[in-house]
Amino acid sequence: MNSWRESRLKRFEAKLLAVLGHRTIALLGSTLRWRTEGLERFDAIAATGHQPIMAFWHGRILPATYFFRRRGIVVITSENFDGEWIAGIIERFGYGTARGSTSRGARKALLQLTRDMAAGKPAGFTIDGPRGPARVAQAGAVWLAKATGNPVLPFHLEADRHWTLNSWDRMQIPKPRATVSLVVGEPFTVAADADEAAIESARQMLEQRLGALEARASAVLAAPNHSACP
């Protein structure tokens, strides 16, 4: 699985991609303007002595990475070559990483996230990643909420001008000087004794809330009375 680590060239490529990726995202992000709604919910959770489990769609990972930088959020990254350079990018933005994925190493990564949250760090999930299907929530964030007692905090981002990649997640890349709306929804908790039916119900609710947040983010973006901030 990690045979690429034996190649000096591959290790160099991973470091180079991390440096270039970080600089590109930082440059693009510095041009964006933001319209936010519900962001106070992030700080309100910390005020209660808990930490948020951030949950959003994989297709919005680029603007989310820039906006929530330097907050100490821990996210899962895979242990393969792509995961290595992606980890290199997000660590430069002040994120922590738990290595694993929903397909491999999931238990190890979730255990690391549990420990990090106990140490006072927020967690972040692209809940339909790493390979989809798109817009179908997986249960990782719900399981982590059950294990830690911390609330799930769903959010969505939408850019008024963007490129859409022809990828499984239809990844959205804001164009330079675009305005991006960020809408943070109501947090919810999962009981420590939740059974499989309760976990599935929470997973479905998260999926539905993200759908509603996507519509709300588009409405915020279209509203003429919202002022954008750099």
Give a written overview of the molecule.
With 230 residues, the protein is an alpha/beta fold. The chain contains seven helices and nine strands. α1 packs across α4 and α5 crosses α6.
Mean pLDDT: 92
Number of helices: 7
- What is the distance, rounded to the nearest whole angstrom, between the alpha carbons of the first and last residues? 42 Å
Number of distinct beta strands: 9
Give the amount of beta strand, in percent: 15-25%
As residue ranges, the low-confidence spans are none
Q: Estimate the helix proportion, in percent.
A: 40-55%
> How do the strands of the widest beta sheet line up side by side?
1-9-6-2-5-3-4
Question: What's the arrangement of secondary structure elements?
Answer:
Layout: H1 8-29, E1 33-37, H2 40-47, E2 53-56, H3 61-67, E3 74-77, H4 81-92, E4 96-99, H5 106-118, E5 123-126, H6 140-148, E6 152-159, E7 162-164, E8 172-174, E9 179-184, H7 196-222
Parallel strand pairs: 1-9, 2-5, 2-6, 3-4, 3-5
Antiparallel strand pairs: 6-9, 7-8
Question: Which terms would index this structure?
Answer:
43% helix; 230 residues; single chain; seven-stranded mixed sheet; alpha/beta
Task: Report a brief summary of the structure.
By secondary structure, this protein is of the alpha/beta class.
